[in-house]
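During the no-cost extension, the postdoctoral fellow (Dr. R.K.) reprocessed legacy sequence entries with the updated structure-token encoder. One reprocessed record is reproduced below for audit purposes.
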Amino acid sequence: MKKGIHDVPFLTKWSISQFLERAAIAGLEGIELNLQEKEGYLTVHSSLVEVRAIAEEVKGVGLEVPTLSTGLHNHYALTSENSDLRKRGEEIAFQMIEFAAELGASVIQIVPGTVSRDTSYERAYERSQESLSLLASEASAAGVTIAVENVCNKFLPSPLEFARFLNEINHPAVKAYFDTGNAMVTGHPEHFIEAIGNQIAAVHVKDYRYESGDFAAPLSGDADWPGIMNALHEAEAGGYLISTPPAYQHCPERLIEAASADLTALLNLVEEGR
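Re-encoded structure tokens follow.
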């Protein structure tokens, strides 16, 4: 697997040129761009000309953009009772597919949905599958994989349900974006990997502290990293490990260096466990 990091902790600290330069210096191989609504390196208002310019700049420093992500589907949920919000969520996903094709990204991360007390769980489940099946054809034509992330928002919380959800869609362009920290909130990472291992397209890497209930940088929480990494190896999961660490208030260069070193340490655990 390769090493990458998402851009979120650096959006207010560096220009995209600074971010790319620092990522390359830190020894990372790729970066994940997070689609923002208003301010960010990549937004819903970005033009294709701007996206192509980013692609050229990324290539110029020897990096890749393997994945795109977004938090917008937490609001524009594919499971929403509001049809306008659902439609906007689908439009955002279509835009991500278009941007991914321009950037050479093979994976886009999608939050499958949200539920509330007023939302029928069964109907939310159906709506999400309907939208993802609709998006799958477009993604497949563009050579992009939709990677559904296991989130901790009361929707698809268990490994078996998450696996069943993907299996029922049964489309080669719809796979899993496995998040280690989220899996710790709702279950155990190894159980998720066992259930969906051959469908993992990319991995979001973060830790979790059970006592405080906080997410943390890898190796600074309660995750059984040797178990997780060897489970990923046994499942033959490929692609990227994308670090999603909490932001530093100061010295972002230390964060990106630490994130790269942490990912190297995690990959070394696989070698040690063989």
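The longest strand covers residues 30-36. The longest helix spans residues 121-142. The remaining legacy entries will be reprocessed before the final report is submitted.
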